[in-house]
User: Fold these one by one.
Assistant:
Number 1:
Amino acid sequence: MIKEKLRRPLQQAYLLRLLVRRNIKNQYYRSFIGVLWTVLNPLLNMLVMTLVFSKLFGDDPTLMLDYPIYILSGNIIFNIMRTSTSGSLPCLVRQRDMLQKTRVSIALFPTANVLSSLVTFLFSFVALLIVALVRYFMVGYTLSWHIVLIVVLLPAIALFSLGISYFLSALYVFFRDIEHLYSVILTLWTYLTPLFYTVERLGSALIKKIMNLNPMYHYVEYFRTLLAGDIPSGMEHLFCYGFAIASFAVGYLFMRAVRNHIAANL
Amino acid sequence: MRQKIQPDPDCLLEAHEVTMKFTRYDVGVNSLKELVVRAFRRDLKREKFVCLENVSFKIHKGEAVAVIGRNGVGKSTLLKIVSGILKPTSGWAHCNGRISPLLQLGAGFDGNATGIENIYLNAAIMGYTKKEIDAKLPDILAFAELGDFIHTPVKAYSSGMLARLGFSIAITMDAEIMLIDEILAVGDIAFQKKCYDRLAELRKKGLTFLIVSHGDAVRSLCDRAIWIERGHVIADGPAGEIFDRYANAMMHPEQGA
């Protein structure tokens, strides 16, 4: 009896694992250093961005963190959202042949994308640790124990990304042109989030207020607060989880509402 | 809502007064741009159309049923409803077993993944556990006869090899219902014969078949046919007779059904 009840969740967990593994394999498919890219990619990115932007922003007096660490931390957090949502967007349409014929929970597919982004993040995190070590010898940057609090941040950003992923993957079934629209939105979002600049530098109280409406700003800042050796305020936690729950609720309810239309339109 | 008529426990597949209505924009709106432009022009005419109306049938264990009808009469919609993917507007459908879909050639495969990986992925999407797939793997491999190619990404496969792989998965996993849409016409003759032999063998074993195809090749597999026209079941009976009437109606449309 118990075994029968457990069968379905266990089967779904197994499918999820296969999907995540497939995603990660496809990401670096055929590149000859393979999974090493997941570590190298953010490192090289950071190197380029540091070279380009350190002249512009690197000597910023409002910077509370070593600049290479600042850039890298922002990017790898933002990438969790970026890769999971842009990967999720076409995921239902891509599986349409199977989804037309089998009764499988469609929510599993975007979920797999979010999980594989988290796995990629872990690799990028290794890159961050390497940079932190290098900067320790170069400028004496020290990583504090606060970094373990990342486990508080990750569920929030995962939930936030999952909500958007649900929403986009469902919407894409009806409107195939949102792919282009979303890539523009993502680019805009990247620049509107202080990844290589600081909000303080913009020197406007108004902008800082408006920035509070950008969920990614909170996730990025939360992570940087940890890296600077502080504990984020209760307010920050509220922001991070508030946005996460709101996004998840909207995405989940939307997907549930249009589920039958998805089945009809795929 | 209380269902007055309970599903018949002896039936494997049952549809009871299934009606499906769709709301469609009369000119295909499938992009956001189109929707916005038309909304501005106040040019959004919605049209309700009835895809299926009061469709009822029962399929018992061991039957092999073909669903026939012109393109666009709602056969695929009916299949989706019967397999529980789509909820009908009214009425209900009930499915009392696992469905193994025989997909069109290569559909649902991930090109970058190897044959083996695709076997696991496809079967897992169909709802099988790792243990069940592990147990079936030798049979699948033996039937597909792909040799070492099974470890190559499937994008390097020929269409015949894709058909072999897809067919082997669907035919080996032991589901109660076999769903056959567009029978495979690819693959060499030897493999095709092997497939039909295997299907006939499964028929003898008492597997239930639901087939959507008019091809003569599947005719020998079915013993019953359901003919759908304009959303209604207009004939349901012995396969040979219905197939003949259907072919006749298609050739001489003016005489009516």
Number 2:
Amino acid sequence: MRLNLTVNGRPMTADDVWEGESLLYVLRERLGLPGSKNACEQGECGSCTVYLEGVPVCACLVAAGQAQDREVGTVEGLADEDELSPVQRAFVDAGAVQCGFCTPGLLVAADDLINRVPDPSDAEIREALAGNLCRCTGYEKIMEAVREAAAEKTGSSSEGGRR
Amino acid sequence: MDFLRPADWSEALEAKAKHPEATPIAGGTDLMVELNFDHRRPEILLDLSRVEQLRQWSRLPEAQGGVLRLGAGVPYSRLIDEVGAALPGLAMAARTVGSPQIRNRGTLGGNLVSASPAGDGHPPLIASGAEVEVESARASRTVPVAEFFTGVKKTVLAEDELVAAIRVPEATGPQQFSKIGTRNAMVIAVCTFAVALHPRRETVGTGIGSAAPTPRAASEAEEFLAAELAERDQWRRPTPLPESVVDRFAELVVNATAPIDDVRGTARYRTHALGVLARRTLGWAWEEYRNSAETAGRQGCA
């Protein structure tokens, strides 16, 4: 099939797509967007987390045919032209990255959290990241990064800074 | 592979009538794993994710007694947010499903049709007395959830039928759900238990998961507890339940199981764990009922 979809705000097309292949395969192998990582292929690890119609999902569990005419947002779309997004900045600052394989998925999941929940509690952060596995750092630095990104976001959106 | 993309419910039913061998796909959280690992190559996929009717829920007219009709394609995350207050047992179970990413895609309809003995959504639906709305191009019918499953990964669905919705009576009393797994996220249940108190009807509902080929109610435990509560006038004047009653309830729950040994746990462990879950969940639900009765009593006096 010919697959038409919007990725990071841009219309994209892929040809000769097998409908039963995953959206993850389409992104990585057909559209040249290898940011979303392929690890477990069964929704366990969260490394392939992308936005589908604005909601975080595992791209490995979306059939290519289901993505027809849909809007997808990947880790490549988080940053502006020349500026990292708050979660990306915070992951760098907090050193929440070691091998980096889980990072793209964590960034999308964390980005969704801080956009949905202002000032999330630690329990809320843990719950939001429960579907993303990191096998290097342990999660302490990641927690720190998400707290920082949330604080940054709250600070910049409310004039009085952090409540 | 053919990939059918019906735009609405009647097109979906027509497609299924024309291609009974077509495999429906909704959230894909079960089916895509099988495709990714090449365990399955369906000739035809029937994509239900564009059928708007499946993604809606509504309250049936009050004459039908406070029932929510949940479209089969409403994902777990929306069930939690949108109907969690009316269906607390189901919401508790939904919160234990996979991860946020999985709950954003996975659906109750898919959970039913996959018919895994370990489906998290099944026990609270059984405890609530829910019914499955099944439809084909030729007819529609409703099936009590407890009768929907006929074996491991087998259901009563005819080959031209699809699940339209699940009708779940709103909670009229406390409900609880508990699940055993190796961590809080991303686990297939070792076993699960759901209990629902129905004070208006003075009955008790239960649901057991992952401890028999199909999810099931512990009917004897339900009847025993309801009789005990009625006999001691506990629905109107609730007091702490005697240990002997709680123990007997748990024992009858365990008697209703038929577990096996598998990679997630042994039959013996499941049996033990279900006794514990039955005691705990009943304890929590009864505590909540006593507290709410006390509050209601106090308000009544004021």
